Amino acid sequence: xxxxxxxxxxxxxxxxxxxxxxxxxxxxxxxxxxxxxxxxxxxxxxxxxxxxxxxxxxxxxxxxxxxxxxxxxxxxxxxxxxxxxxxxxxxxxxxxxxxxxxxxxxxxxxxxxxxxxxxxxxxxxxxxxxxxxxxxxxxxxxxxxxxxxxxxxxxxxxxxxxxxxxxxxxxxxxxxxxxxxxxxxxxxxxxxxxxxxxxxxxxxxxxxxxxxxxxxxxxxxxxxxxxxxxxxxxxxxxxxxxxxxxxxxxxxxxxxxxxxxxxxxxxxxxxxxxxxxxxxxxxxxxxxxxxxxxxxxxxxxxxxxxxxxxxxxxxxxxxxxxxxxxxxxxxxxxxxxxxxxxxxxxxxxxxxxxxxxxxxxxxxxxxxxxxxxxxxxxxxxxxxxxxxxxxxxxxxxxxxxxxxxxxxxxxxxxxxxxxxxxxxxxxxxxxxxxxxxxxxxxxxxxxxxxxxxxxxxxxxxxxxxxxxxx
Length: 470
Ligand SMILES: Cc1cc2nc3c(=O)[nH]c(=O)nc-3n(C[C@H](O)[C@H](O)[C@H](O)COP(=O)(O)OP(=O)(O)OC[C@H]3O[C@@H](n4cnc5c(N)ncnc54)[C@H](O)[C@@H]3O)c2cc1C
Prior knowledge:
Blueprint lengths: L1 E2 L11 E5 L3 H10 L5 E5 L25 H10 L3 H7 L4 E4 L3 E5 L2 E2 L7 E4 L3 H13 L4 E4 L2 E8 L4 E8 L9 E4 L2 E4 L7 H7 L6 E6 L3 E8 L11 E4 L8 E6 L5 E7 L9 H8 L6 H8 L1 E2 L4 E3 L4 E5 L10 E3 L5 E2 L7 H17 L7 H10 L2 H11 L6 E2 L9 H14 L3 H11 L11 H9 L20
Parallel strand pairs: 1-8, 2-3, 2-12, 3-8, 5-15, 12-21
Antiparallel strand pairs: 4-7, 5-6, 9-10, 10-11, 13-20, 13-23, 14-17, 14-18, 14-19, 15-16, 16-17, 20-22
The site of flavin-adenine dinucleotide has 37 residues, from helix 1, strand 9 and helix 8.
């Protein structure tokens, strides 16, 4: 249900307000609808009107993958969702079978797929989530309306202050009362300021910024180099080779090509320069593909890619009735493709925390459960980014206890491209579908510890090794 905002909510029913009607906010709203009489999702944009180019989600124009952990979490919150996504044409890419992938100085073997990514556009995924969530009769969407502050005090949040976007910044904000307010406003969240505004403390922010920049362009694969035995290209940066590329199909049969590089050497947004940048990758396969394909859009850039974790779990004067989820809680370097998956896993964690019969779902406890469900993704992206040259931040230290694990993980990475057993475990963890302990299972550990590194092929594998091809 979509409506215009009226005055404050007057009734005594339990009311939750979710600020931000994107993927994390919508999924949180669906979970809360089982616990509150009314849930209102307040969104600054009018997403139904301008799907892919709305200003609140500028990342929509860049390549997005939905990892396997996100697929099962979405399915848990919205049963049948993955079938709907497939029916809407979102391509499904088997890893490592369907991807021509360069990593750590060599090409991955294209053995049978052990995990799948969905590679349709983020805008389509968000639209389908919105449709499903807003079908719920207890959920009301208020669009074109911005939350500008909280109502309440340092002990308890009692609502939000909001203002219609067309009313102008000087208009007096109105109050929307709520028993629970959830911040799902994404990486640009102003919750710290809102909390200060009611006399509470903002969360400590851990920041790890590799300075990675994205640039993306839409292409038509006029020569059909992709689409049969291989569905995409992936060149993964590392501390010695910091340029990256990914080319993936989207639902309308075209491809998104994204190039990435670090601060000071960002991929250009001029079309010719963008393609010339691809020539500097360790192999010309992506450059050759671009030159043989037809560009269908200008190049768009994105630079705000720092990992930021807001530590609401640490002591501080914070009110009951306020939670953060999705990117507003924990933002990741997008190169690891985790944000939508974690938004869905946060929603599952919210549901579990609210229905746990052993514990009262106090604000701090629920918030900690959400943070816990972001932890694996944080460990992967922050852990890898700490190794990048020029990384900046206030959370760069590695505890001494974690150093042996770092040594072991380096051995995993060196072998994942050519050893199918290690590769399977590695992909399950990177897909946020298995805990890190999967890498220490006896069969995997034996190979990690006792087998020599076999170098990857020095030429891109254009055919799948899996029985029956792809
Ligand atoms: C370049 C890039 C590439 C990415 N690639 C991937 C990928 O491959 N895979 C993946 O899983 N994730 C990826 N992500 C992350 C992914 O886009 C997000 O994690 C995902 O959109 C979920 O975010 P969210 O719902 O928490 O916030 P967002 O999607 O950022 O949404 C926040 C919403 O809040 C609204 N809002 C903001 N302020 C207010 C306010 N004051 N009042 C009301 N509404 C407000 C905004 O309009 C917006 O709709 C990528 C991100 C970037 C930047």
